[in-house]
Design brief:
150 residues; alpha/beta; 7 strands; globular; disordered N terminus
């Protein structure tokens, strides 16, 4: 029998709790606006992850995401393959749905969350059960902090 990963356990426990309460994974009722390129399959997989967690997602496909990233304050070191906006917060890259829900609940003073790059094992980047460690970064004009580690 394969041991269950910490990430899988946390996601399963969260899903079970939400299922038991009958509530969606988030209670903001807000739509996640997402900008992605038309050819990115991992972005589509991340959208599926967010929708499965109860988020409503509206996707806009663009050939060039740099103007969106610049307008929303995403610096090159935070950049990934897609950019979103929900509740006034920027969501950059493969941020787990549970972290987006936590952000919306806690409402910290910040620009948003980012998972820089495209780490294997992050939502939408699942590949043959492989994973690599990654951080979810809470970013703001005053500096960045680690919001979660996987």
């Amino acid at each position: 029998m394969n041991p269950i990963s910490r990430r899988t356990f946390i996601l399963a426990a969260g899903a079970a709790l939400l299922s038991a309460t009958g509530l969606p994974a988030h209670a903001s009722g807000e739509t996640l606006e997402l900008w992605k390129t038309p050819w990115c399959g991992c972005c589509t997989a991340w959208v599926d992850h967010m929708r499965a967690a109860g988020f409503e997602v509206r996707v806009t496909e663009l050939e060039d995401l740099e103007p969106v990233k610049t307008r929303l304050g995403v610096t090159p070191e935070l950049a990934s393959c897609h950019t979103g906006l929900i509740g006034g917060y920027v969501i950059e890259g493969h941020v787990p749905a549970a972290d987006v829900a936590r952000l919306l609940k806690e409402k910290p003073q910040a620009t948003g969350l980012a998972v820089p790059g495209m780490p294997i094992g992050s939502p939408g980047m699942e590949m043959d059960g492989r994973t690599e460690p990654y951080e979810v970064v809470l970013f703001a004009p005053g500096g960045n902090t680690v919001f979660a580690r996987y």
